[in-house]
Amino acid sequence: MLTLLGIAAVVAGFAIRLNPLLVIGAAAFVTGWAAGFSPVEILSAFGKAFNENRYVSLVWLILPLIGLLERYGLQERARMLVARIRVMTVGRLLLSYFIIRQITASLGLTALGSHAQMVRPLIAPMAEAAAEKELGSLSDEQRYRVRAHAAAVDNIALFFGEDVFIAIGSILLIKGFLQQSGIVVQPFELSVWAIPTAVLALIIHGTRVLLLDRKLKRETAQAAE
Amino acid sequence: MITLQFCYLMAGLAFGSYAVLSAFDRSNRKRFGNAAFWGLFASSFLFGSYLTDWQNGLLVLALIVLGGCGLVGHGKPSTTSSKERRESAILRGNWLFAPALLVPAVALLGTLFLKQAQIGGSALLDPKNVTVISLVLGVVIALGVAMRWLRPKPPAPLQEGRRLADMIGWAIILPQLLASLGAIFALSGVGKAVGEIATRYLPLGQPFEAVLVYCVGMAAFTAVMGNAFAAFPVMTAGIGLPLIVHQFHGNAAIMAAIGMLSGFCGTLTTPMAANFNIVPAALLELPDRNGVIKVQLPTAGLMLIANTLLMYALVYRF
User: Fold this and answer.
1) What's the predicted TM-score (pTM) here?
2) Residue-wise over B260-297: b if at least 16 C-beta within 10 A, else e?
């Protein structure tokens, strides 16, 4: 039971808003210590795991490209594009991106999206431009909320779309785990049962982003009074 | 053969150049902190495979201290003004999107078609890591195309990369660090302990209770671990299989599929899932680190309710 101290350290650390790097470092040492490892063993295990997980950080190689394109007006162009489409509102824009992201993810194309590649350079500035077109100007709080919604759409559409594809990591993990327990299921049987949740996610989050339009308008109207 | 080592070399060179450029950036009060942080991260990419576990551990510890104690600041690389950017956007038009979209396109084509590609009898891409390598190739190709078209001064992409890297700051190593914490948790048997507690102290006598505890447990455990993959084996071995499948004769495929999706509801709520929740907050320059999580909370709650009811409606019927 002592090994759970590490989890307590994580929860407490995040709750009092310590720097997450320190929280993780502390949690690793507390957990390893509770499990009876020496500091040297813990540090070695942590170093080994960090080294083996370097591929996680390879996504950052995209930064020079995105930065270079931003230098030549990528975000400004994304805004101009949205400003030209008269019927485009924040809600409709986010809903469109949600649908595209969910469908492509359900076909296994999870690489067509993500925060560094799509949300920061394209979707977030487009959403801001759509909101500005509707409302004239945004308060700082509204601007940050619109950006956060752009990131949320990417996450939610991905999470509740990818499992419809038969060869995605989580489906293969489920299949492998059930097989070890003596239950053989085909990936197709699993991915079919991900469809009802995918549809509900589209309805629930789609409604929320469409309601965002009204909410922003109401806030601006109230602020004007 | 192009392997992960090639990708690590590219990443090491990129972060190494941020370190050098940071050291000369007098606008940044903490410039040597930045240089040390990016330099150490670069050495992990360049030399990590040749260091011992213990040395790699010291390297991580140094990164944690530098990033965790506020020794890393924000540099100010020279970039274009917003007026110049608007003019360039009008001049260059929608072609500006092309290099950005080239990356996923190459990643996709590489994943689909280069898996079997061979040169002189050996595989062109390391078959175990085709997607990641294709993504890196996509970046290299797109950057080459953008450089030829836009013709900036040579250090421009590195300075722009440093601008974004400094903006994200220490959060850049967070996803990798959390993956490492997951390894320590696994080594120490944290999952087993949680499973024991869940099965010993929770009410599980009725079919609906079993579904409720399984779905909510998946979400909660995922929120703590930051990853549904870590929660799934524990919760399924502890509650899903013995109760829902064996005792109440539920359908294993439905239980597993919807159980995993309940875990994803937890992913939406936790700073532990850094690359989905904390990194975008930094990338979008939100003042509140938890800004993305706050927007996601209502959907996460509603989806958890939806998943629980769906599983109860379906799992005992098919």
Assistant:
1) 0.85
2) bbbbbbbbbbbbbbbbbbbbbbbbbebeebbbbbbbbe
